[in-house]
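Exercise 7.
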Amino acid sequence: MSDKTWNYEYPGGLDWTPGSKLHQDTVSKLIRYAQDAASNIQERYSSWHEMDKKLQAYISIDKKEKKVIADDPRKPVSIVFPYTYAILETLVSYLVAAFTPEPLFRYEGVSPSDIAGATLMEKVINLQCNKSKVILNLHTFYRDCSAYGLGIVAPQWMIKRGKKVQSVRDGIYDGNGTFRETRKYKRTESVVLFEGNALDNIDPYCYLPDPNVPIHQPQRGEFVAWMDSDSYVNLLCDEEVDGDLFNVRYLKDMSTKSTSIFGETSRSQTRRRDNWTRQFTNTALLEPVDLLNIMVKLIPKEWDLSDSTYPEKWMFMVGADRVIIKAKPLGLNHDMFPVAVAAPEFDGYSPVAFSRLEILSGMQTVVDWMFNSHVTNVRKAINDLIIVDPYLLNLPDLENSEAGGIIRLRRPAWGRGVENAAMQLSVVDITRNNVADVSFVIDFMRQIAGTDNPFMGNLRGGGPERLTAKEFQGTAAGAINRLERIAKVVGVQAMQDIGYMFAMHLQQFMSEDVYVKTAGEWPDKILQNFNVEDGRVKVSPFDILVDYDVIIRDGSIPGGAFSDSWIQLFQIISQNPFLLQKFDITRLFKYIATNLGAKNVDDFQLSANAMPDQQVQQAVANGQLKPLNSEVTMNGAIPGG
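Solution. The predicted structure, written as tokens, is:
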């Protein structure tokens, strides 16, 4: 780090100049927190690296296989039989189907006066999720928790600034106060292009949780942290517009910008992307800056931050283990660490968790070995192994692989015949049953993972008989129940926290009006309270200041609740007058349609306008309304009126 001093104005009147006592003491404390967490989470790296190998489609080629490829690139070499990857795809696909139907997060007002505000909140948050592409972050989140047993996201309030072309009108007001335009032109202004909720994925390799609390309860910990990296130029750009960043210029002349929290021996293994980026960053200018993001529950007086003796949550960012570039109270109304963790296979106590795929790791190794040994044996068998008498045969002719060649006998063998000159060595294929054994092991993997054939999009094979409907439904039901358990755990552990923090962020930080579409589930009594213009409702920051409950999805997916049985029940109820009095047939139909995957059932519903009986009778008499089935409906409700 350079000895040059930059004139920064630090927040709160604190001295965060690198080298000051406050700065050095704080850095030392934060690094100790991170090192304690790293020593705990590093135990998982070896297993995660093995899982990464099993999720790729190749094995590193050895010297023998390099020669095989050089001789004939069409010959197969060792591969990873990608069945673990197929199971991962099934798990992630189920979670995506269970949690990503719109709206992503459902809210319900606590009191009757909160119903309208909760509905508006739901619409605004869904709009923000679409703009910030939250579904992509959720996909990575589901993949991480399925592959490594641990998925982490950081809910945040994102403000995107940029330039926008505005239309400007110049003119004058005449004596009557009427504005008369004299000129119209375009002007580029710096504005806020987007503000709203967003998600940021945290690589499990970079996550640094408090080892004193269970992995699924980060809010109980004293701290939570993770490593990240960014270029110096990007950090300098952020410092220009973000008043919370400082000291970035001290990072430019540092000899190394990497962290030592994980130790020198494991530094190259802490992040998957480092295997790609580090080999290309040979200069200090291109080397990214490693950033420690850490949030600590601390007593400000003990850290010399203020005179307060009550715990507060603070956010710090340390660049290259030596320079604090952010330090501020977290200041979030929900008073939570802004992270959400999903560990579907948690045991409720341990600070680490294992994934379902790790349980199958040994069986995947067996499958790879059996499949590749069979390929190796076949490759050996198709290479002719011939025993020859070099005294009788001309070996260069024998080594010629061209079709239709002639192999000449040497002069001493002329006239003796060719019977005993060469003989092909018989090769016994001892791996011929390996493929059948692979299928046997795969069946066990499928049963253990709960991803049976019907749920992976495959029908049962192995026999000439047809797959019966009962067999299909029974197998699918068992798989659905097991996958629903995973989805419910993920929903309670993480999706509920994300939805709660999104709503709190919206109430705390929303500063501009937005418009939301009125299509979908909008009760008429809610629309009556708002001015609807061209199918849109204007929402102000004050409209969503309500008490709410986050509605957690139950983990089911469209079509997974045995819709055939529900359709039969619907037919029975619709034809039975007694049952029609006991059940709401419209709501039942909407439930079945939604379960089958329909997303906009309400768009097809007829509206009913209530009119007084006398007004209806008068309208009928005037010919403005016509009776339905020769009778006016009760209470003057005219469908479609």
